Amino acid sequence: MRATVCLPTYNELENLEPMLDALAEVLREEDRVLVIDDASPDGTGELADRLSQSRPFLDVLHRSRKEGLGPAYVAGFRRALASGAELVLEMDCDFSHDPADVPRLIAAAEEGTDLVLGSRYVRGGAIPNWGVGRRAVSLGGNLYAQILLGSRIRDLTGGFKCFRRAVLETIDLDACDARGYAFQIETTYRVQRAGFRVRELPISFSDRTRGTSKMSRSIVAEAAWKVPLLRLRALAGRL
Ligand SMILES: Nc1nc2c(ncn2[C@@H]2O[C@H](COP(=O)(O)OP(=O)(O)OP(=O)(O)O)[C@@H](O)[C@H]2O)c(=O)[nH]1
Ligand SMILES: [Mg+2]
Asked: Is the separation of the CB atoms in 77 and 191 below 8 Å?
């Protein structure tokens, strides 16, 4: 099945070329990479254009301003679907997600799983660089979402995913407009509620070594209020 890896970028100048090289190693002839750049001030978008000239598997989607992860991914998903992708992947461009894991996610989707999640919190998953504090915040956030949504998925906030095409054609993508973790929670929750098969595969998650994080307090706060809202919408039959 033909796969498109969606790679959102905002100031990932140092990471982009090594990431594309690593993906080129693991992707198959027919697979593609779509960089979605929100006018990065550091010139990541221009670099992507330049790199695409020598890399036929690469497409670049330029957006005029930074609106956060949700709108960037939704635009990327639509472009990937329009170009005929049968599998659509989400992945960070900071090497937190190991490109070497991509074939495992693709294989699980090809075997029939509708949404495959790279998961830090199932047996075999790991986050080697995180201390107790960071771990507690992430686990707490996941537990909060799990309980409020009544979901048994262990890693609801992760951003390393592989969707089968039909999944993205079914859920209401326009409604998924969150800027951070809430986007990951909402998409997975909608997929589960629509009755699709979801499976978690263990991954090891590494901290970025180059560039800076775009996560902020407001993004955590967004997840805190969006999760109960999601549940209320679901209960009211409006999801
Ligand atoms: N196009 C686009 N990409 C973004 C935006 N915000 C973040 N990204 C990209 O999304 C990916 C994840 O963002 P990070 O800043 O690494 O956030 P994170 O991985 O959740 O947090 P850290 O653990 O702190 O790295 C990276 O590839 C970013 O460049 C945005 O507004 N638009
Ligand atoms: Mg990151």
From this structure: no
Choice from 7, 60, 94, 179 to test ligand 1 binding pocket (greatest atom count within 8 A of CB): 94
| Ligand 1 pocket member 6 (CB < 6 A) | no
pLDDT (tens place) for every residue of the chain, 239 residues total: 999 999 999 999 999 999 999 999 999 999 999 999 999 999 999 999 999 999 999 999 999 999 999 999 999 999 999 999 999 999 999 999 999 999 999 999 999 999 999 999 999 999 999 999 999 999 999 999 999 999 999 999 999 999 999 999 999 999 998 999 999 999 999 999 999 999 999 999 999 999 999 888 999 999 999 999 999 999 999 88
Which CB contacts under 8 angstroms, 24+ apart, belong to 75-79? 75/36, 76/6, 76/8, 76/34, 76/36, 77/6, 77/163, 77/168, 77/173, 78/173, 79/34
| Rounded CA separation 36/24 (Å) | 17
Q: Is 90 in the pocket of ligand 1 (CB under 6 A)?
A: no
- What is d(CA 90, CA 157) in angstroms, rounded to the nearest whole number? 12
Among candidates 34, 23, 94, 38, which has minimal Cα distance to 69? 38
Distance CA 165, CA 89 (A): 10
Smallest Cα–Cα separation from 120: which of 51, 182, 204?
A: 204
Largest Cα–Cα separation, the chain: 51
What dihedral angle (degrees, nearest 10) is formed by the CA atoms of 53, 96, 144, 216?
Answer: -70
